[in-house]
Design brief:
This protein has a single domain, classed as 3-Layer(aba) Sandwich (Rossmann fold). The chain is of the alpha/beta class. Helix 1 packs across helix 5 and helix 3 runs parallel beside helix 4. Strand 1, helix 1 and strand 2 form a beta-alpha-beta unit. The chain has five helices and nine strands; from the N terminus they run E-H-E-H-E-H-E-H-E-E-E-E-E-H. The longest helix has 15 residues. It is 34% helix and 19% strand. Strands 1, 2, 3, 4, 5 and 9 form a six-stranded parallel sheet that branches. It has a three-stranded antiparallel sheet with strand order 6-8-7, with no helix packed on it.
Length: 169
């Protein structure tokens, strides 16, 4: 039996929702469970093995409210044996000093709780100053810039999903 995968994103965002839909299309709608991040609870994380999470960066490098509100519950969980991949939206030109920080913030919490993070991508092709999502020459998730590099999103998502298929096994 294959492991169950869930994608968690806010149904009430515009740009993140569009990207999540690209991820779902690339993954295959019949092979993934769709969860509204604003209705997230512990039982959902206990139900699945693999997770694709949307973490757009808000303001000057913050998690969206719906993730912020769930963090205390998340920090109490043992995520051992579960795999997570995180994508997020940011603006390299408008916020170059905290580009896609929300990815890094969420990944740090997941790792502290024992979860394994997959789906790293090279920093090559991005222009920014700093990011909490960066470790060495890689991002710990898939950063996307719908403001300045929207034309690259579909290809980046497609390549990332292909990578996740092997890493989620």
């Amino acid at each position: 039996m294959s492991k169950k995968t869930a994608i968690i994103y806010s149904f009430h965002t515009h740009k993140s929702k569009k990207v999540a839909e690209k991820v779902i299309d690339a993954w295959g709608k019949e092979d993934i469970e769709i969860v509204n991040a604003e209705e997230l609870e512990k039982a959902i994380l206990e139900k699945y093995d693999n997770f694709i999470l949307s973490a757009p960066t808000w303001f000057d490098g913050e998690l969206p409210n719906y993730w912020d509100e769930f963090v205390p519950d998340l920090e109490e969980m043992d995520l051992s044996g579960k795999k997570f991949a995180v994508f997020g939206l940011g603006d390299q030109k408008g916020y170059p000093e905290n580009y896609c920080d929300a990815i890094g913030i969420l990944v740090e919490i997941i790792e502290q709780c024992g979860g394994k993070v997959v789906g790293h991508v090279p920093v090559e092709g991005y222009t920014f100053e700093t990011s909490r999502a960066r470790r060495g020459d890689e991002f710990v998730g898939l950063p996307l810039d719908q403001e300045n590099q929207a034309r690259m999103t579909t290809e980046r998502v497609k390549n990332w999903v292909e990578k996740l298929r092997s890493e989620f096994k």
